[in-house]
Design goal:
Elements (H helix, E strand, L loop, with lengths): L7 E6 L10 H11 L3 E6 L3 E3 L3 E7 L8 H9 L4 E6 L5 E4 L15 H11 L3 E3 L2 H7 L16 E4 L2 H11 L3 E5 L9 E3 L7 H9 L4 E5 L8 E7 L2 E2 L1 E2 L2 E2 L1 E5 L14 E4 L4 H16 L4 E7 L2 E6 L6 H8 L3 H14 L1 H4 L12
Parallel strand pairs: 1-2, 1-6, 6-7
Antiparallel strand pairs: 3-4, 4-5, 8-11, 9-10, 9-11, 12-13, 12-16, 12-18, 14-15, 16-17, 18-19
Length: 351
Amino acid sequence: MRDPSTMRVLFVVNNPRSLRPTYTTAYLAVAAQRRGHEVAFISVDDLAHEREVTGRVVTPTPGSHADPSSLLASLRAPESRHEDVPLAGFDIVLLRNNPHVGDGHSVRVNPAIELGRRLKEAGVMVLNDPDGLRRAGSKMYLAGFPTAIRPRTLITCSANRVRAFLRELDGAAVIKPLFGYGGRNVFFVGRGETANLSQIISTVRSSGYLIVQEYVAAAARGDKRVLLLAGVPLEVGERVAVYRRLHASDDIRNNMHLGASRRACRLTQAERELCETIRPRLMADGLYFVGLDIAGNKILEINVFAPGGLHNMHELYSVDFADAAIADLERKFKLRGAYREPVPPRMFMRG
């Protein structure tokens, strides 16, 4: 009989074979296995539904894996186990696929969300919550928060509205796709700048809606990535899961894969208050594990699909934030009855 304290955790990813040892997903999986839990992975393309949600999962080779490299190597080993199983047999399903990556699916139709909802209805704990991911799945989500905590923003398809907004803003701005990721097609437009503006708008609009966002001057000194767990900054002792990203000298984007560098930093009280301001909404939407990008006491982005940074934080601070995240997941699992939606009471008609 399985130990009731042992969790069966399934990671839904774009492709298990393309995972890298630096990915936060790999860090979480190693921490879960180290703490005695069973872990498995599935590609979003291997999900299926007929009478129930099923899929072809891959399980690491038996034995403890000391680090992400070892665990991911075991997934690719010939002796790794691949099998088709009902996914309702897992205790926790972590939706860690990035719908913006790959050619198979539109960001507007994410199969993991649709099938994750079915698993949630079957009693599986699905994180982040599929309905919350649907609501927060684009940069438009940030526009629903108070203007005091975010840059002034326009979301539109109209080139004329973009030009009018820039004139009214009378300052520098950033133009980027509404459904973009990874710093792709992000452009800086200086105050009063019109050269190449038509070309910029046309390039970004080719992906659909675009965002014109007030440029936060503090971003020139980099932004901070902070990880939130259950709506509050993830902490181990006195160390918070946060680091500063500094863009390359010839780029405005602070994405690490585009040449940005990282620095250790602290979370200020003002930044903690930013987190506290959005916490009730995150909790109401079931967004359990979230990454925030902050600059100048403004939230630039809220990352809900596969938020990352654990590798950089581990190297900067020698702190195992992944272990703390899994420990909190254990707490949530033990109290899982409190998270299930109550059965609506029956209504009786008087005769």
